[in-house]
Write a structure and sequence with these properties.
Largest sheet: 7 strands, antiparallel
Number of strands: 16
Structural class: alpha+beta
């Protein structure tokens, strides 16, 4: 039998573009350790099959990669191995009449929004323009319109995968339903290489997007009001709070005062309901006087571009998914009960204690609170692999630095912050992977871990798809 050969766009260390090809979004990671020998940019499902079979035939380790956004660079680091990259598999087949779309696993978010928008459809994708679809969906998938539409995995009806034998399988409610269950929240790279997804999409119209900004001294009042209002508000309203403390840089006075910002979108079924947005925001506006409010009505496709920090007037875009500026440490947790006053005080205390840096970071360290409730909370924790369905909000801790000497103290600040708040939180979001977590699989998957292990043992008994923090075949 003829041995399998690699096909697709293959990059090796002697080829032009090697350094660019192997670097992920987590720029702080040490890419001079665990260096791959080949990167296969797959053009179609056949290329993926060949890559999996090649790696198995030659006993070569491999990693699976889509948008390179793994926070710990797990998808880009494999000593002497092969990276199977699906980022060039970006086809979109969308039917406006049925509102069904089949989308390649490697498409970037902004490209997905643009192509679906051309036929009047949308999905609750991420706000990172270069986030890859595959990783987002397989880990659950929070987005701006999640409270109204559900998680990305909730709208998934079929996933095409290449399994450990290099064969193509489909998973849906009728075919391999246990694998389909696991692929909706079980994380990327655990059960196979996802190549295509089929979704039930939403037909959007005009939406209202808004930003409200408060002074730093209003933080405790705003957080307390928002956490009680946001998860129970109209499902058409999705919001997130960004807590931006004063940045402290040696030899320079603080650049700006700290601020509390709320960004959000109101997505009504009818344009006639757009005026309702202002009424829905009143509880927050009444709780603390804001410094400023921006409010505009735009088509959903334009709103998606704005949330992706892209010029809504430009038909083209360019994103470097592994920018030198993305030097950071992030971690997360789920909040299932409103923070008591002492938790909010602790939140502010840690933000006020952000480390002093030797030079200005690409952006200030911060905390983001992503609103929960809504449609995702109506799904039972056992219906998909997403366990934390009762989430009031997700809290994300982000530490940024530029100078190497600032890295250790910033990372410590993030981890200490998360650990100190853990008495008020549960678990962690698998798409915000964190190598410092104790018992990470239990943190990610909660009570669904045992079933995920059973599915893993069934579909990948030899544990071919493995990486740090991957699901094992047994506990």
């Amino acid at each position: 039998m003829k041995k399998p050969q690699l096909t697709g766009r293959i990059i090796t260390p002697t080829d032009p573009g090697w350094e660019e090809a192997r670097i992920g979004f987590a720029r702080w990671a040490d890419y001079d350790q665990n260096i791959p020998v080949k990167i296969v940019f797959c053009q179609d499902t056949c290329d993926v099959q060949n890559a999996v079979r090649y790696a198995r035939e030659n006993s070569i380790p491999f990693r699976v990669r889509a948008g390179r956004h793994n926070y710990e660079a797990f998808s880009s680091l494999v000593e002497g191995g092969v990276i199977i990259d699906v980022s060039e598999m970006q086809s979109v087949k969308a039917d406006a009449a049925s509102a069904v779309a089949e989308i390649g696993a490697g498409i970037y978010m902004l490209e997905m929004f643009d192509q679906l928008g051309e036929v009047g459809l949308t999905l609750p994708g991420a706000t990172g323009p270069s986030v890859g679809l595959g990783g987002l969906v397989l880990g659950g998938g929070f987005g701006v319109t999640t409270r109204k539409l559900g998680l990305m995995c909730d709208l998934l009806t079929n996933v095409e995968l290449v399994n450990a034998d290099g064969d193509v399988v489909n998973a849906n409610k009728d075919e391999n339903p246990d694998l389909f269950w696991a692929c909706r929240g079980g994380g990327g790279g655990n059960f196979g290489v996802a190549t295509k997804f089929t979704f039930n999409c939403y037909r959007p119209g005009l939406v209202a997007i808004f930003t409200v900004e408060w002074p730093w001294e209003s933080l405790e009042t705003v957080v307390d009001t928002w956490q009680r209002w946001g998860p129970t508000s109209d499902n058409d309203v999705s919001t997130f709070l960004t807590l931006l403390p004063v940045d402290h840089v040696k030899m320079r006075a603080p650049s700006t005062p700290g601020t509390v910002q709320m960004h959000g979108q109101f997505t009504p079924d009818s344009p006639a309901d757009l005026a309702k947005a202002q009424t829905l925001l009143m509880p927050l506006l009444a709780a603390a006087p804001p410094m400023g409010i921006q409010f505009k009505v735009v088509p959903e496709q334009i709103a998606a571009r704005i949330f992706c920090s892209s010029d809504p007037q430009s038909p083209t875009w360019f994103v470097d998914p592994h920018s030198d500026n993305q030097i950071y440490k992030s971690t997360s947790a789920f909040v299932v009960e409103p923070f008591p006053k002492d938790a909010i005080s602790a939140l502010k205390m840690h933000l006020d204690a952000v480390p002093e840096l030797s030079c200005t970071p690409s952006q200030p360290s911060m905390v983001q609170l992503l609103g929960g409730g809504g449609v995702p909370s109506k799904v039972k924790p056992t219906d998909t692999a997403v366990f934390y369905r009762d989430t009031q909000f997700v809290i994300q801790y982000d530490g940024y630095w530029t100078a190497p000497e600032d890295g250790a103290k910033t990372i410590k600040w993030v981890i200490d912050f998360r650990n100190d708040m853990s008495k008020y939180t549960k678990g962690a979001y698998v798409n915000y992977s964190d190598s410092s977590l104790k018992d990470p699989l239990r943190m990610y998957y909660g009570g669904n871990l045992e079933r995920l292990v059973e599915v893993k043992a069934k579909y990948d008994p030899d544990n071919v798809f493995n990486f740090p923090q991957s699901i094992p075949t047994s506990l």
